[in-house]
Design a protein that fits this description.
Radius of gyration: 18 Å
CATH superfamily of the largest domain: lambda repressor-like DNA-binding domains
Number of strands: 0
Number of helices: 8
Shape: elongated
CATH class of the largest domain: Mainly Alpha
Distance between the termini: 37 Å
Number of domains: 2
Strand content: under 5%
Order of helices and strands: HHHHHHHH
CATH architecture of the largest domain: Orthogonal Bundle
Helix content: over 70%
Largest sheet: none
């Protein structure tokens, strides 16, 4: 297991999603100092024991963080998506509509869905 790769993946997710060390530490119920150490020269590999929780926080498979079995992780995500589509007819209808949509249509629909999601949170 390449711990440097895992560190890079976690850093990427934190930057991409605007997550601070404090926010990640709060979720993991560890001190912020521990999270900072994971990315410093004085680092320990203690984050390895937290991979499941870190993956849960960022809503990604552990394989994404480790770089292993990435094809399996992608296939699992696709299978999960297909199962959701099969279970919810309104999503199947949305997918059929989206297949014929132009990019601007998708952009508008994405904006509306994000706004609805924020309103419901």
């Amino acid at each position: 297991m390449d711990t440097n790769y895992i560190r890079k993946q976690i850093k990427y997710l934190m930057n991409d999603r605007g997550t601070t060390c404090q926010q990640l530490a709060d979720f993991l119920k560890v001190s912020t100092d521990i999270v900072y150490r994971w990315f410093s020269k004085r680092s320990t590999n203690s984050f390895i024991y937290r991979l499941r929780d870190i993956a849960e926080y960022f809503n990604v498979p552990i394989a994404y963080l480790t770089g292993s079995d990435l094809d399996d992780a992608i296939n699992d995500d696709i299978s999960q998506f297909i199962n959701v589509l099969q279970a919810r007819p309104e999503l199947r209808k949305l997918l059929r509509i989206a297949q014929k949509a132009k990019k601007t249509d998708v952009d508008v629909a994405t904006y509306v869905l994000c706004a609805l999601n924020q309103r419901n949170e």
